[in-house]
Request: fold
Amino acid sequence: MTRMKEAKKGNITEEAKIVAKNENISPEKLIGLIANGKVVIPKNINRDTKPCGIGEGLKTKINANLGSSSKMEDLPLEIQKAKVAVEYGADAVMDLSTGPNLNKFRKEIISAVDVPIGTVPIYEAGVATQSKGKSIIEMEEEDIFKAIENQAKEGIDFMTLHCGINKDLVEKLQRAKRTMGIVSRGGTFLASWILHNEKENPLFENYDYILEIAYEYDITLSLGDGLRPGCLQDATDIAQIQELVNLGTLVKRAQDKSVQSMVEGPGHVPMNQIATNMEIQKTLCYGAPFYVLGPIVTDLAPGYDHITSAIGGAIAAQSGANFLCYVTPAEHLSIPNLDDVREGVIASKIAAQAADVAKGLPSAMEKEKEMANARKNFDWEKQFELAFNGEKCKKYRESYPVEEEDMCSMCGEYCAIRIAKDDF
Reply:
């Protein structure tokens, strides 16, 4: 029985108790949100891991992507990235490996960290297809569902499945004048397969079977946005919205079957369109948690896309997004290194905290008050403890040392707080 089914019956599971305590809400309120599909707790029945709630009324959560590519396979490095991501605050990790040894990578990452793990099973199907000397468009439907089943048994907690792309939508996209076409790997795999085989998307056509697998293992479906915009010019176009309409229908079918689901979103979106995008998703998708990549608010900052995405992420989370997928400085350029992962997570954590303050979450504002008091009292250790990267703060503090504790090298004896501490 899934957590959603338990919630519909009014049963408070152990996972729900833990999440409710962490979020400072009542277990009864939490299971009501789960029953209505507005909160998910991604946790496969075959994996014992720390429960994490994602959705309405909860703290904004962060996901970190990692994994091998066909050009770079370094298992120890990817394991280290996973651990660094979690150390700096990632609430979940997605393994997007596409290298020849992706199955080994996935199993090792599952064992390495105690947070929900997500995947994109069609990557495994694609790698299996190419290992047979075939192209992606020759992928066999059996390989796609085999990958889903295998990963379900291994303990994957949430899966990105591009079920919303169908034959009709691919034909419409061909007639559209998108600047960058399709930028989602999974979306491209399926759209090209549909086009060249003149058949329906197997994930769309066999969605009931996917629901059966998800129900058996209590996997959270992360319904992928295969047609997300890859540049600002393509944002909020007909193809993106039509896919979202399809996903809304699939969310309802999942909720009716007591399968937890969330929806993935853009992408590259101008700042003035972000709030509208969030409202459209929440309306069309029955309040399901929204999982967004960024959004990236300008295409002119390669090397700094952790910043462009943090700007968009803060606006998105304030406007209704529940789960932010981090973007690293290496986005659009290369596979990220350890420093990139760290910077990507911290940038997303900043966005999430800013949004949670704006949403009025008491726990978020409490931390802000703690930092203000620590600064007023020149409590450097407390400041380092509260900071998203205390080590970096400490290095700055020590780079130009001063003898007095009640000042730093920026203002020295002219510190405003020091001068007026007893007066105001």
The two ends are 59 Å apart (CA to CA).
